[in-house]
Structure formats: structure tokens, C-alpha cells
Amino acid sequence: MKIEHLIAQIKSKNSFLCVGLDTDLDKIPEHLLKEEDPIFEFNKAIIDATHSYCVAYKPNIAFYEAYGIAGWRSLEKTMDYLNEKHPDMYTIADAKRGDIGNTSTRYAKAFFDTMNFDAVTIAPYMGRDSVEPFLTFEDKHAILLALTSNQGAFDFQTRTTEGLELYKQVLKTSRDYENSERLMYVVGATKAIYLKEIREIIPESFLLVPGVGAQGGSLQEVCKYGITKDVGLLVNSSRGILYASQAKDFANKAAQQAKTIQNEMEMELHKRFGD
Ligand SMILES: O=C(O)c1cc(=O)[nH]c(=O)n1[C@@H]1O[C@H](COP(=O)(O)O)[C@@H](O)[C@H]1O
Question: Cβ < 6 Å from ligand 1: which residues?
């Protein structure tokens, strides 16, 4: 998807919500387990209920790989459903890949060509030649982990070498990669305070911001420090939306949660951009 199209979607829906499809058979409503493909049926119901309130969906690949071939099939069906019924939705494969060049090339083919995702999350640790294969696809994005939402982020990402924290080195160095305009970055909502300095290095790049909802990050703080003239944010919530109810009304409850976040986003956008 062209970035202009994503920005237009955000503006027309007054939403920069990404719904994370972290679909877990231990958490979905019991009545769905009787279906032939419970994961797909759950995703389809969630998509049908939430698509007016969000602009993106982010299946986390672990939740599909965990079920082997059946899980991959559910993922493929979910992507086919999204691409056919909701082609305006931005789709992110949360796979956190990255390897030597020829291997990254195959990962890029898997997610961009075969599965037709718009973006994939990438671990930057192996450097330039592990990232650039993902940047050769027009209108696709590689989303580099910069400062993640979890506690372990402090093990390495905030450590300083040569006067600069590692996550800042990731931001600075990757700007010189070929086709770096196709990069986005992950910054956890739980690290919103860091966004001020992050925006000094990457004033315009889109950020994927997970960690509101179940992990306790604040949408208001994220907006305060992270929003750009094009909004520049995709804020993800997975469990907080997916598992708002585990009863038969799960899709309605998920829609209510998504609508609540969308309303908050609309207020934040209104504060900054007016009508
Ligand atoms: O790359 C990610 O999406 C990601 C990065 C990060 O720093 N923290 C983080 O939670 N995530 C993912 O975002 C989702 C968060 O899920 P909830 O905490 O249930 O909203 C999960 O799929 C995580 O793997």
C-alpha cells in the first residue's frame, strides 16, 4: 500500500488503530472450537466487527506457527479475507525476522509476495544486509524494532556505546540504508517519554506503537510526543480488543473496545488538527 493511501485512511476514519490478531485457541470463545477452522472464524468475526474503527491489522506470526500447517492455513485465509473484503486495510506481519542477505530475501518473498502483507517487523541486530532485502519492494514497508515495549528492552536497547544509546544508533544508521524511505520503526507505548528524542532523529517516519491496553501504555502520552503532521503513528492493541469477552458476544465487545480507542484517537487528532 502506498503511504499516501494509509495516511488518507487514517484521516478519513479518524483512527490510527491497528488491531493485533494474536489469536490464541486457549482464549477464544469455546463455541468456536467446534468450527473446522476456529482461528479463521475468530479472526473473521473480529475483522467484521472492528474494521470501521481501525486502519490496520497485525497478525503476530507466532500465534499461527504454533499450530503448524493448520495455523499457516488460518493465516493465509485471514490474509485472503482481508485483501478481498477490506483491501483498504494496512496489513502487518509481526514476524520479527532478519538474517543474512539471501535468507532475508526469502523472508521478504514469503511475507510480501506469497502472503501479500504490506509490512513486516524486522529485528535490526544483523545490520544493513539483513534489512535491505525487505526494502526492495515498492509500496511495502519494513518495520525495524527500535525501542520495544517490554522490560528486556533495557538489557541492550538503552545501553550506550560511543555516546549513543543502541536504539538511537538503529534509528540513525538505518536512515542511510538503500530505500530507507520504506522503513518504519517500532517504539513501545510503554516508552512514550522517549518519543520526544526519537522524533528529533526521525521526525517523519511512521511508528508502530504496541503496548496500549494489556501492557498499560498511554495513548495520550504517545500522541503528545509522537504525532507528526501526517499522524505518523499506528497504535496497536491485541489482547485488550480480542479478549474483551470470551462469551458469544465477543465480537461486539471487541468492537466496543476498538470504538473506545478510536474515539480517544479522534479527540487527540481533533486537538491537534481541528476538524
Ligand atoms: O513488534 C511488535 O508488534 C511488538 C513490539 C514490542 O515492542 N512490543 C510488543 O508488544 N509487540 C507486539 O505487539 C503485540 C502486543 O499485544 P498486546 O499486549 O496484547 O496488546 C504483540 O503481538 C507483541 O508481540
Answer: 20, 22, 60, 94, 121, 148-150, 186, 188, 210-211, 213-215, 236-240
The verdict on residue 243 lying in a domain is yes
Catalytic residue set? 96
- Report pTM: 0.98
Counting residues of the chain whose pLDDT is more than 90, the rounded percentage is: 98
How many structural domains is the chain composed of?
1
Task: Quick: pLDDT tens for 236-248.
Answer: 999 999 999 999 9
Evaluate whether residue 236 is within a structural domain. Answer: yes
- Here the CATH number for the domain that contains residue 96 is 3.20.20.70
Which regions of the chain does DSSP assign to beta strands (E)? 17-21, 56-59, 90-97, 119-122, 141-147, 160-161, 164-165, 183-187, 207-210, 233-237
Q: Which of 27, 61, 65, 149 to mutate to test the pocket of ligand 1 (most atoms within 8 A of CB)?
A: 149
Q: Is the complex ipTM more than 0.95?
A: yes
Domain for residue 77, yes or no? yes
